[in-house]
Design goal:
- With about 525 residues, the chain is an all-beta fold.
- The chain has 1 helix and 42 strands.
- Strands 3, 4, 6, 7 and 8 form a 5-stranded antiparallel β-sheet that branches. A 5-stranded mixed β-sheet has the order 17-24-23-19-20, with no helix packed on it. Strands 27, 28, 30, 31 and 32 form a 5-stranded antiparallel β-sheet that branches.
- It is rod-shaped, with a radius of gyration of 49 Å.
- It starts with a strand and ends with a strand.
- It is found in: Membrane.
- Keywords: Glycoprotein, Membrane, Receptor, Signal, Transmembrane, Transmembrane helix.
Length: about 525
């Protein structure tokens, strides 16, 4: 007689249950009994027997269960008795309770230069033991999702064929390579949205003038890479000799990174929108200009750049000359003290201020945060005393002398104390803004010949450090010249006359003498 007995363990690994049905070839119903006896672990061939025994009996069919002590029970002896005839004892070895693994983590994706999209993930951190196998499901529908499932076996990545302009939800789960596999929960959702175009790399760091290779992947299956037209920074078309198709859907360009600015933007299509490839330039030149005010207590630094991003202005100061600071940093030495961070709030605000001011050397540069770390422009070393813009001169007094000379005097600003050179310009009041400039002088006055002393002249004066370093001050306020002052006599001079008559000619000569 063949007995069909089915034994199973519940999901909590707490009970062993066996089902036994009366054999179909039995002539009549008989009394059946099943007994269970737990065994504990000994050596590989010997299991000490427990005193605890469970016996179930019934007619036709029965279900019998025994509680498992999961920490000690490793086998169960099963004995079947029908009509007092005992079958051979069966030893059921209890497998180790399978552990449900945690779901995979850190889902990510890349695209290759062969236009292949690779999804990758990390195995759960609490995993130890047998190799895991994986399943990936993805859907571009939200309600209800229509899942497509891909098996990944033991690999930690899989290639997916996704369409552009659709938002995909992707999840991964795993299970152990055991006799009783138990799947993990699905991972947290990971989302992929493919634009019509992708770039490899999407972002890269290069030095000024360094060659960079970028690939443009056209995600539509009907795309043709030979139609790609690369452009720089939104509008500048690039020479077609720089790029060529790699295959049906991929175009490649080798491009020289700019020597100025913080980054370049590359695109391979006519329409200008996201995405693009960004070439970050480490050490590119940006024109940073610092000006110290006339009171030499504040320095403003401004810069010019075309990037849309808001840059961070950073600085270090050291009590040494700028030549020494630059040389020691070139040798790899870390010198100076970092200054506070300055981040203008608006795109058009490109100025940062030092106040109070130290009379030493400042190293200033601009930073741009990126996914690849901070990008820095070429630093500028500034000594505040060499970048002074003096205050305008005061008490400007232009006078037209009777000798045909325009004489201008002024009071120069008090700082810088090393001395100043000043220059004046002038034009006649009747000729608007047609300035004539005179050479600079190191004394607080200057003269120039003028054709007409009775004309009114408009005069302005500015000053600069005597050495020529730094900046000219603003022009002083416009002042109108005045003629040299003089007083008329209170009465006319004494005078006499001498008369000579000529009676023959009926005329007289009169000579006037006066003092």
């Amino acid at each position: 007689t063949c007995l069909d007995i089915l034994c199973r363990i519940d999901e909590f690994w707490a009970n062993l249950t066996c089902d036994l049905s009366q054999p179909s070839d039995t002539l009549k119903a008989s009394r059946m009994a099943v007994s269970f006896q737990r065994l504990f672990q000994g050596n590989s061939t010997n299991y000490p027997t427990s005193d605890h025994q469970v016996v179930c009996d019934a007619e036709d069919s029965l279900m019998c269960s025994i509680h498992l002590n999961s920490s000690r029970t490793f086998a169960v002896l099963v004995t079947v008795n029908i009509s007092n005839v005992m079958a051979s004892t069966v030893l059921l070895r209890i497998p180790a309770r399978p552990v449900k693994p945690s779901p995979p983590v850190i889902l990510a994706h890349i695209q290759t230069v062969e236009a292949e999209l690779i999804l990758s993930w990390k195995e759960p951190s609490d995993f130890s033991g047998n190799l895991l196998r994986y399943e990936v499901r993805y859907s571009s529908q939200n309600t209800p999702p229509y899942w497509q499932v891909v098996s990944a076996l033991e690999k930690l990545n899989v290639s997916l064929d996704l369409e552009p302009l659709l938002k995909y939800t992707i999840q991964v789960r795993c299970t152990t390579q055991s006799q009783l596999p138990l799947w993990s929960d699905w991972s947290k959702p990971y989302y992929i949205y493919l634009h019509n175009v992708s770039y490899i790399p999407q972002e890269v760091v290069a030095r000024p003038g360094e060659n960079v290779t970028v690939y443009c992947v056209l995600n539509g299956h009907s795309a043709n890479a030979s139609m790609a037209m690369w452009s720089l920074n939104r509008m500048v078309p690039l020479d077609p000799s720089l790029y060529h198709p790699v295959n049906q859907r991929v175009s490649q360009i080798t491009f020289m990174a700019s020597k100025t600015g913080m980054y370049d933007l590359l695109r391979c299509t006519q329409e200008w929108s996201i995405p693009y490839s960004r070439i970050n330039v480490e050490g590119g030149f940006i024109n940073i200009t610092c000006v110290t005010n006339g009171d030499i207590d504040t320095m403003n630094c401004r810069w010019e750049n075309e990037e849309w991003a808001i840059l961070k202005f950073r600085s270090k100061s050291a009590e040494m000359s700028c030549d020494e600071m630059e040389e020691r940093e070139r040798d790899g030495e870390d010198v100076g003290e970092m200054g506070p961070e300055c981040s203008p709030n608006k795109y058009k605000e490109k100025v940062c201020t030092f106040h109070p001011l130290k009379m030493n050397c400042y190293k200033v540069w601009l930073e741009l945060p990126s996914h690849l770390g901070l990008i820095r422009c070429k630093p500028v070393y500034v000594s505040p005393i060499n970048h002074v813009k003096p205050n305008p001169p005061t008490n400007v007094t232009p006078v037209s002398l009777s000798s045909g000379i325009l004489r201008v005097t002024w009071n120069p600003p008090l700082l810088p104390t090393e001395g100043l050179q000043c220059q004046f310009r002038y034009h006649t009041l009747s000729v608007i803004e047609k300035w004539k400039f005179e050479e600079s002088v190191r004394v607080p006055w200057a003269e120039v010949e003028i054709p007409d002393m009775c004309q009114v002249y408009v005069v302005q004066v500015r000053c600069k450090h005597t050495s020529g370093i730094g900046y000219w001050s603003e022009w002083s306020d416009s002042i109108h010249s005045t003629p040299q002052s003089s007083r008329a006599p209170e009465r006319g001079p004494d005078f006499w006359r001498m008369r000579q008559d000529d009676p023959h000619r009926s005329q007289s000569n009169i000579t006037l003498l006066f003092e």
